[in-house]
Design brief:
With 430 residues, this protein is α+β, with helices and mostly antiparallel strands. It is 36% helix and 15% strand. The strands form 5 sheets. The chain has a 6-stranded mixed sheet. It has a 3-stranded antiparallel sheet with strand order 7-8-11. Strands 12-15-16 form a 3-stranded antiparallel sheet. Its EC number is 3.4.13.9.
Length: 430
């Protein structure tokens, strides 16, 4: 059961959202908003549905990730109306809502059918959610300008949201420790996943995203999606990118562990972690997030130089020639909240030198971001350089050995504060 302070923070959170949403509705000429929680669609040609976790704006208000066919009605001057679908069903269990203080701030109703509640006293209604579930409903569906404005309400987290994100980090850190211990004890990817789930007490379907658990060369596939059931003859490395959803809010943590007798790879892991510490320390109000990304490339160049993986080029030349992009091909991170890749990160497109960057904003207090530098040995990215004129500067022998370790990524969840930052992940580890 959540502690009293958290429950009181949630009541303040609801009041804050009511003010933010009412301002957005007034600005765009609406006097009512109906939000769908969503529902799991059936798989094509089957009667089985996909895993369900709820629509972002609905989670932003309620945190109720598992409630399908629910609706939330927002009207200025009224309590939010939360309508939950609770059919009489002997095939499936019906989710029950545990009484909590925030229910005093809403009007709570139950329906035994999936239709949206009737909306009265609204002259101009907006309805947002999965278009497949909005057919036949009155009002303007998913108006682009309003949806963008509502995304903005999620950029600056309330104290309640930050408390939920902190708890999600605590739970995930326990899972990461169990995963590391299982790896060092000789477990397979499949068994490491089970150890993570056991420690977090979270079903895989309830996790905010499919956990990435890669041993050896699998760690070099950025979104590796399979779990080998057999342990390799020699486990040289583990990369695990996994989180927990708590009251609708996500953690997103990555750790890399070197296997026994992998001294060179372990040194690179240590070097990248030291860089990651410095990058996290850059998080502060007024900092351009893209500057953190660019500083990462400078740090990767210095690490490649120190490790003897690239020689005969300055750090600046490595960045300018695109060598660091072959070792670090993704962006430094993203917003985090009710969605893992939370909304409103790109007010402007990413620059040409960072095409995969998911966040291009100036940092402000209340934002929550991930900082996740990586260093990978991906053949398809390295081979064009090795085969070109710059190949003479790369240590082929060392790279061939390290390719069997796949790669390194280290990721923390960091809050932008008035004075600088708060690292939720390291805080949970201490």
């Amino acid at each position: 059961m959540p502690d009293t302070d958290l429950l009181m923070l949630q009541r303040d959170h609801i009041k804050t959202l009511q003010a933010r949403y009412q301002a957005s509705l007034a600005e765009h000429g609406y006097d009512g908003l109906l939000i769908s929680s969503g529902a799991s669609p059936l798989q094509y040609g089957d009667d089985q549905g996909w895993a369900f976790q709820g629509y972002g704006p609905f989670l932003h208000w309620t945190g109720l990730a598992g409630f399908e066919h629910a609706w939330l009605l927002i009207r200025p001057g009224h309590k939010p109306l939360l309508s939950l679908y609770q059919p009489v069903d002997f095939w499936h269990a019906t989710l029950e809502l545990t009484p909590e203080p925030w229910h005093e701030d809403i009007e709570l109703t139950y329906r035994d059918h999936r239709a949206a509640p009737e909306v009265e006293g609204v002259s101009k209604l907006a309805v947002i959610g999965d278009p497949n579930l909005l057919s036949g409903l009155p009002g303007t569906h998913n108006p682009e300008a309003l949806c963008a404005a509502l995304d903005e309400t999620r950029v600056h987290k309330t104290p309640y949201e930050i408390a939920c994100l902190a708890k999600a980090n605590v739970l995930a850190v326990a899972g990461h420790r169990a995963a590391r211990d299982a790896f060092l004890a000789g477990a397979s990817e499949f068994d490491i996943n089970l150890a993570y789930q056991q420690a977090t007490r979270q079903r895989e379907a309830d996790a905010p995203y499919h956990s990435i658990i890669g041993i050896n060369e699998h760690a070099g596939t950025l979104h590796y999606q399979y779990y080998d059931t057999a342990t390799p003859l020699k486990s040289r490395s583990l990369l695990i990118d996994a989180g927990v959803r708590y009251r609708g809010y996500c953690s997103d943590i990555t750790r890399t562990t070197a296997g026994v007798e992998e001294g060179r790879f372990a040194a690179l892991v240590h070097g990248l972690e030291q860089l990651q510490f410095r990058l996290c320390d850059m998080v502060a109000p007024g900092v351009e997030y893209v500057d953190i990304h660019r500083r990462t490339h400078q740090g990767i160049a210095a690490l490649l130089n120190a490790a003897g993986l690239v020689t005969g080029l300055s750090d600046e030349e490595m960045v300018e020639e695109g060598i660091t992009r072959a070792f670090f091909p993704h962006g430094i991170g993203h917003f985090l909240g009710a969605q893992v890749h939370d909304v409103a990160g790109k007010l402007v497109p990413p620059p040409a030198d960072a095409p995969f960057l998911r966040l291009t904003r100036t940092l402000e207090p209340g934002m929550v971001v991930t900082i996740e530098p990586g260093l990978y040995f991906i053949p398809s990215l390295l081979e064009p350089i090795l085969g070109g004129p710059l190949g003479q500067h790369l240590n082929r022998e060392r790279l061939e050995v390290l390719q069997g370790c796949g790669g390194i990524r280290i990721e923390d969840n960091v809050v932008v504060t008035e004075a600088g930052n708060r690292n939720l992940t390291r805080e949970a580890e201490s």
